[in-house]
Amino acid sequence: MKTTVSVISAVALAAALQATTAAAASEADVRAIAALPGEPSHVAAGGLTKADERILTLENAGAFDSTASARRLVLVGGFDGDEKSAETVLALVRWFKTAAPAQTKRAWVVSALPAAAFDAADHASLERWITFQAPDVLVEVRGDGAAFDTSSMKPTVVPPGTSGAALGRILAAAPAGKSQIHQEIDRRVSRPPLEIAKLLASRYPETPSISYIPSVAWINTLKLSKLINDPALADKVRRQTAPWVSGAQPLFGDRILLTSVAGTMVFAELGGEATRLAAEGARLAAAMKPSGIAEYGQGWTDDMFMASSILTRVGDFDSAARLLTGYVQRLQRPDGIFMHATDGPFAWGRGNGFAALGMAEFLTAAPQSHASRESILAAYRRQMQALVAQQSPDGMWRQVIDEPGSYREETATAMLTTAIARGIARGWLDASFNAVVARAWRGLAAHVKEDATLVDVCTGTGVGPTKRYYLDRAAITGADDRGGAMALLAAMEVVNLKAR
Questions:
Q1: Across the strands, what pairs with 448?
Q2: Cα dist. 170→12, 164, 312 in Å?
Q3: How far is CA 7 from CA 145, 152, 308, in A?
């Protein structure tokens, strides 16, 4: 897919991105426009300045709705620091919502970024936001006359003060049909979950190892193999895990890490002689320090999934419950969201995914009569309810869950989609969460390309002392075992939910 701003002329880029103090759109003004009847009605953010100021956007929930016939107009202003350009963007959205002809409203849906106050080094956030709004027409309001030089469409540049009537004429003159970007997003989103699962299972893991990442991919490949009666998929898993099952390769290196211990969960699924390896992993996962932290973990939310995933598969529910209960007490905030660690008290996206999956693994396997079940279920429900309010307009969850300006991240979305879908299927959550999963799945599918590469997967992340540490973690686009495994996990969970 050709991205909206993948190629930018040097002159235009300088004009657009050197204005680090570009015109700020008043949040009150943006919210006033959003409150008017009709779409766009969601106030979100397309990024953050280095001063942690949110770059506000007006969005709707239909960016990834492949069934919608309406085309998409994206309005962007504030490139050159001209306050009037930001005001014009808001005025044009107001016109669309209050005065545009009914036919125009039926034919178009609007998203807007009034003030593109991105820092000079951060055009990636601007590119990311525009691309995933899937524009058919991109209109830039700017007084300097510069324009993006894009490989996919020619933006229309208009000056500050442009009227709604003039915008209406631009839309009337727009080429018929959806843009290449819009069509590409539609194709991705319209694929059934089972098709995406097959795509991902055929590619991942690319690097077999004893770690939670390949193991998640292997387990879900085994499930897919059984579901579609394709023995070749199960053969692939057995072939890739054979060096450890046979003893040709040791399970662990000189240093044992809980992330590697979690990798033994696949051996519980394989059964037979492989179960001895699962038992070894569970023994290590059950070990605890006097502080209540996993012996081979870090005290982060990561440990909740790494330990629970193997302990529950061998039936050691007491050890899993003890660890989960202690981590909930230390790391779950009063609002239900999890901070990554006591020394990293920030709501990292994948960290919340680890917490959610760890609790979901216990609730899936533990007996109804287990003494800790109700308290863990309550913690799970608190988190799930809190996540609803933090879901972005397009269905994704963010790199920092409660920071609207952080980027919308693939693994967090996949893991949380999994946890919620499983909760609906197993009766832990009510039917109101179906809409949450539907939106999240569309967002996730849009981030899985046709060749099974992924878009915006947070790189490996340890604990960080500041929120900026998490905000600045790189987003990987391309082949990625972690992103592929988690998307496959989500796809299989959505398949299961739809089958019920």
A1: 454
A2: 22, 10, 59
A3: 18, 9, 46
What tokens were used for 231?
């023995």
Residue 79 has pLDDT above 80, yes or no: no
Reading the block at residue 276, the tokens are 């001895």
| Cβ contact 108:72 at 8 Å | yes
3-state helix, strand, coil in the chain (%, to 5): 50, 10, 40
- The highest-confidence range among 40-54, 123-137, 475-489, by mean pLDDT, is 475-489
Strand partners, 76: 113, 140
CA 21 vs. chain centroid, Å, equals: 29
| pLDDT, tens digit (0-9, with 9 covering 90-100), for 29-47 | 999 999 999 999 999 999 9
DSSP string, 423-437: HHHTTSS-GGGHHHH
Residue 137, classed as helix, strand or coil, is: strand
What gap in Å lies between CA 397 and CA 414, rounded to an integer?
9
What is the pLDDT of the chain when averaged over all its residues? 92
Contacting residues for 365 by C-beta, under 8 A, at least 6 apart:
312, 313, 315, 317
Query: Residue with structure tokens 């034919």?
Result: 107
Rounded to whole angstroms, the Cα distance separating 87 from 500 reads: 49
Query: How far separated are the first and last CA of the chain, in Å rounded?
Result: 34
Would you say residue 82 has pLDDT above 90?
A: no
Q: What is the distance between the alpha carbons of residues 8 and 331, in angstroms, rounded to a whole number?
A: 43
H or E, element range at 361: helix 349-365
Quickly count: other Cβ atoms within 10 Å of residue 338's Cβ: 29
What is the DSSP track for 404-468?
TTSPB-HHHHHHHHHHHHHHHHTTSS-GGGHHHHHHHHHHHHHTB-TTS-EEEEEPP----SSHH
| Alpha carbons within 13 A on the beta-carbon side of 357 | 29
> Residue ranges of the alpha helices (H) in 191-287?
193-201, 212-228, 231-245, 258-261, 265-270, 275-286
- Tell me how far apart the alpha carbons of residues 216 and 308 are, in angstroms, rounded to a whole number: 13
Which phi-psi region, left, alpha or beta, contains residue 442 (left: φ > 0; alpha: ψ -120 to 50)? Answer: alpha
- Other beta carbons within 10 Å of 280: 17
- The model's pTM is 0.93
Q: How many CB atoms lie within 10 A of CB 85?
A: 28
* Alpha carbons 348 and 450: distance in angstroms, whole number: 28
**Residue 107 CB coordination number (10 Å):** 16
